[in-house]
Amino acid sequence: MGRIEEIRSNTRLVVYQSGKRFSDKDSDARIDQMVRDLGHDFTDDGLAAYLKTHKLNMKQVVTRKKVTVPRRIVVQAENTVRQLLWESYHSSVNGMRNPTLPSRQLCDSGQLKMAVPGWDFLDPTDRKGVVVAKSGEQFGPGQEFTYIRQDLLDQYLKRRRAVLIWSVSGERRVLYKDDDGEFREPPRSENIHRVFYMLYCYNYGVITPLTRNTKAAMK
C-alpha cells in the first residue's frame, strides 16, 4: 500500500479495463477500492492477481502542470546625475552646498570640464554643457536645478543605446506652529497635504509618461 501511495504522490495512476481507459476520477476511485479490497494482502503478487481477476490494467502517467512563472526583466541602469556632499567650509573657491552634478560617464561622453569657480561644465569649445543652479535659504525652502544641454544628452543616450527615465515628484503640505513652537498639521478638514509622483521616458526629444504599456517609448 505504501508503494502505491508513493507512486501516486509523484505521478498519476490510470486504470484500464479491456483496453478502455478510465477517467482520472474513476481511476482514483477504483484504486482506492482496490487498496481497501486487498488490505494486508497488498503485495506485488496480490496486486497482480487482483488485476487479472478483474481484467484490469494499470499504468503510470507522468502529469504535467501548467506553471505560471513571473516575467523578470533585467536592465542596466546608471545615474545621470549625482549629489556631491560638499559644504562651503571645504573650500573658499566653490561655496555652494551639496550641488547635484552630472555623472562621470556623461562628462566623459561630452568631454566636459568644470568651470571653476562654480559648478557649471564646459564642452571642448568652452560652451556651457551643464548648468548647476541653486536658490533659496541654506536650511530652508529653495530650488535646485541641473540643466544638461539637449544635444549632449542625446549624443550620450545614442552612444549608450539607452533612454532617460525621469522621476518627477512633489509634495504640498501646510504646517503651523503651536503655542510651544512645535510644528503641527492642521485639522483633517483643513489639511491640503498632497503627494505627486510620476515617471517619464525621454528618448531623442520625445517625452512620454511611463505607464505599464511603454514598449514603444523604450525602443
Write a short abstract of this structure.
It contains six helices and 14 strands. With 219 residues, it is α+β, with helices and mostly antiparallel strands. It folds into three domains: 2-61, no CATH class; 80-162, no CATH class; 163-219, no CATH class.
H/E order of the elements?
Answer: HEEHHEEEHEEEEHEEEEEH
Average predicted local confidence, pLDDT: 79
Low-confidence stretches: 213-219
Tell me the number of structural domains.
3
Largest sheet, spatial ordering of strands: 6-7-8-9
Instruction: Tally the helices.
Output: 6
Helix percent reads 25-40%
Compute the number of strand runs.
14
> Beta-strand level of the residues, as a percent range?
25-35%
* CA-based shape: elongated
Helix- and strand-based class?
Answer: alpha+beta
Gyration radius, to the nearest Å?
A: 36 Å
Terminal-residue CA separation: 60 Å
Sheet of most strands: 4 strands, antiparallel
